[in-house]
Amino acid sequence: MTETTRRDEIAAGLARVEAQIAEACRAAGRHREELTLIAVSKTYPASDVRILAELGITDVGENRDQEASAKARECAGLGLRWHFVGQLQTNKVRSVAGYADVVHSVDRPRLVTALSREALGAGRSITCLVQVALDGDPGRGGARPEDVEALADAVAGAEGLELGGVMAVAPLGEEAGEAFARLREIARSVRKAHPGAGVISAGMSGDMSQAIANGATHLRVGTALLGRRKPFVR
Fold first, then answer.
1. N or C: which end of the chain has fewer CB within 10 A?
2. Domains of the chain, earliest start first
């Protein structure tokens, strides 16, 4: 596929996504400016990220450090804001702290400690979102709802970190709107103690509209922008 054709393909995907966001905003009585679109570029090349930047995308998400760190280096200078959206192991924190502006998957105190240490060591400030396990199963990533407020307090009190808000993935087998309604209430509780923590990262290619209806501020969209993913090859 030629570069021009790929650009046209991505531009068409972006136009479809923006139309869907606009319609969902109209239905929810919200403004488009309230939402940040994060292009999740996992398994796609840095050339696609450059095209996205040319098309006006400013926020890019990745969920594997090995891929993300290389892409962030290759795309340095584009003025992008990098979001780490996957489960984060403590042995990857030093690398992630070197390029991620926002980490969406903070789900345990040990990760807060490690991120704080590495952010300070790198001389950076990293925005952190507390990931919520809406199905109550932290084994799939995320803190149990009853643990979220304490974890938010820990992030807010950690040097080098800034509490941004919360993140969640809709559980399999549950209507996304119902799950995101619960996230909205958890986010409201977090904001009572931390009024500046207004981010609700929710909604992907298949459930953007439900997320927007339930107060999402950040959408993590990959497939709808870039097409079906190929299997990741290490």
1. C
2. 3-226 (3.20.20.10)
